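Weekly structure sync, notes
Attendees: PL (lead), two postdocs, one rotation student
Agenda item 3: pending single-chain targets
PL asked that the sequence for the first pending target be pasted directly into the notes so everyone works from the same version. It is reproduced below exactly as submitted, 135 residues in total.
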Amino acid sequence: MTIAFVTNGLGAFGLRILAGEGLGGTTEIQYLTLWYALGFVTALAAYMMQARRPVLKEAAIGFGMAVCSLCGQLGMALSLSNGIPGFIVFPVATGGGLLFVVAVGRLIFREPMGVLGKLGILLGVVALIVLALPD
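Predicted structure, written out during the meeting:
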């Protein structure tokens, strides 16, 4: 999960760099293909270090998470390449996800929120602000 968390966050950061340099329209497919291929190899290496056979259920969950992540990243890339400014795309995409996860956790699953949870949300908001800053 740590690998997924870090690599997904770096994916959005990379899109922000592409958008800032004006490269979003020509390289989003290549960027996402490379990013997800490297993420797959990294996750596979971490999994294989456990020296056990792959389980179909775990592979299916991982594949589902990858598809959802890819759709979100592709949506952001296409929005940026079609002229929607980054200071609109990033708050909607990342802020929406952050608010959705917090709301579902608190309201539906009644999860308690400790200090680390609140710090995580704060860090997410700070990252959102940094990503949304105009060029």
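Discussion points:
- The mean pLDDT is 78.
- Helices lie at 2-20, 24-48, 56-81, 86-108, 115-132.
Action: rotation student to compare against the earlier draft before next sync.
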